[in-house]
Amino acid sequence: MKNTNKPKLSVRKMAAIVAVIAIGYVAMLMTACDNGTTPTGPSDEASFVSGSFPGIDGKTVKFNMESDANARRSFGRAARNILPTYEITGQLDDGTNVFELEGTYDPETGTYTVSTAGDDVRYVINGAIGAGGASLGSKAIVIAEDETDPDEWSALASIVTETATAQTISATQTAHSDEPGIPEDYRGVWRGSRQDDNGDTYVFTVFISEWSFIFDVVATMEATGGKVFINQRVAVVEAEANDDGSIAVIMAFPGYVGDQDDIEASGAAFLQERGLTGTLLDASPYDADDDHDWSEVPDGLCYWYDDENGILHWINRTDGEWDYDLGEYEQAIDEFYFFDYMEKYLIEQGIEPVTVFMKMNFSIKNSNLVWLNYVDDDDANQFLSLAELKTADLILLEEEENVFVFTR
Fold first, then answer.
1. Cα(102)–Cα(169) distance, rounded to whole angstroms?
2. How far is CA 239 from the centre of its chain?
3. How far apart are CA 145 and CA 308, in angstroms?
4. Domain boundaries of the chain, sorted by first residue
5. Where are the beta strands (DSSP E) in 18-134?
6. CB neighbours of 190 closer than 8 A, spacing ≥ 6?
7. Mode of pairing for the β-strands spanning 395-396 and 60-72
8. CA-CA distance, 210 to 213, in Å (whole number)?
9. 210: Cα within 13 Å, side-chain hemisphere
10. By the 8 A CB rule, do 88 and 112 touch?
């Protein structure tokens, strides 16, 4: 198996707004400017997903869940033209215990998250429903206390094997965490947007369940029309109430990092899976110092590896000219990033993750969700052990540009 090391990331070493929010996977896409929304799921359909995945100990974990269009969350949205979110419930059987699943499905984006927990384990299932109600796939995050050191936790992500029929829940012993996760008032879907001094627009979607946190950003670059995707899916280790009414939440996620060959291969595998054809370039066609002769590159979808950021860029070639407008390919490439196909590929290749920890602060003010980040003296907001995070001298970033506000 391949093993990778993921260093601590500095939230202030990235540009402006991306600096604070880029707590995980960042991907850039050169494409036409649009309204910044994610791939759209079914407008008003209940979804039912069942499946299984390998747990932290290699045992098969089974689950059933459903989203009921009649069980809409009672969040106030009268002033906004947004579809109501649906409550998801279900059960998870890890071979020993049965856990109750709970979460949210958002038909506007097609994204859902559910979670559950025991005293020493957390289960999170994230996925998406495409137009027409078909699943776009799902992944599970499992974090568990280390058997040799109960003060540490380890994390992994697994690809869910979805089934057309319900799984048989055979365990009879029920389990739940004696400690609470994120309180009810914070759960559900939150949205926000802002524009920076360059005219770049950022559209945010936040999903919160008791034991999971999803953060998605689609940023549209004013100068090029290109888009930047920032995606993060994490599990909650613990949530603690502060004296000021806010909550401090420690989260963890499995970090998968591939080399150039892995990243390029993920693009090729995605194209093959979708029945698309693309040309891999060995350099950026926008490199001013590049002396490539691109005349032999055929028209169609092209992509190249960005060594500095460890990601793929995509662009269309039309009549021998580079074109930001991906046209017929745009929906597929949006899904490549937004539903994190690259991580899916790295998991399938047997790359071993490192467990990454972070700490955030949430509060509700004037019915809005306010999110702040903690960093250490070196501006790092990610740590490779829970002990390292808990012993660090953390600073809460409270400057205006570092405060993120979301509404229902």
1. 16
2. 20
3. 35
4. 260-348
5. 25-29, 47-54, 60-72, 86-93, 97-106, 111-118, 121-129
6. 204, 205, 206, 207, 208, 369, 406, 407, 408
7. unpaired
8. 8
9. 20
10. yes
Q: How confident is the model over 327-348, as pLDDT tens digits?
A: 888 888 888 887 788 888 999 8
**Residue 107, SS3 per DSSP:** coil
- Between CA 110 and CA 41 the distance in angstroms is 4
DSSP 8-state assignment for residue 336: H
pTM of the model: 0.82
- Predicted confidence at residue 340, as pLDDT, reads 81
CA 244 to chain centre: 29
Best CA proximity match to 347, nearest among 233, 247, 266: 266
Sequence-separated (6 or more) residues with CB below 8 Å from residue 264: 280, 305, 312
* Dist CA 137 CA 296 (whole Å): 37
Determine the Cα–Cα distance for residues 234 and 177; give it in Å rounded to an integer: 18
**DSSP one-letter code for 186:** G
- Average pLDDT, 10 consecutive residues per value, the chain (408 residues): 33 32 37 37 54 90 79 38 74 94 86 93 90 81 90 93 90 89 94 90 93 90 75 93 95 92 94 93 78 86 88 88 83 80 89 93 95 91 94 90 88
Residues written for the chain: 408
pLDDT the model gives residue 37: 40
**Positive/negative CA dihedral, 28, 31, 36, 39:** negative
First to last CA, the chain: 43
**3 state DSSP class of 145:** strand
Smallest CA-to-CA distance from 137 within 349, 336, 356 is with 336
Q: Is residue 171 within 8 Å of 96, Cβ to Cβ?
A: yes
CA dist., res. 344 & res. 309, Å (int): 19
C-beta of residue 234 within 8 angstroms of C-beta of residue 212:
yes
The H or E element that residue 345 is part of is: helix 341-348
Structure tokens that stand for 77 in this block: 């949205």
Q: Which residues contact 296 (CB under 8 A, 6 or more apart)?
A: none
Q: Which of 403, 390, 400 minimizes the C-alpha distance to 363? A: 403
Instruction: Round to whole Å and give the CA distance between 357 and 234.
Output: 9
Pairing mode of beta strands 354-365, 395-396: unpaired
In the three-class reduction of DSSP (H, G, I as helix; E, B as strand; rest coil), residue 96 is classed as coil
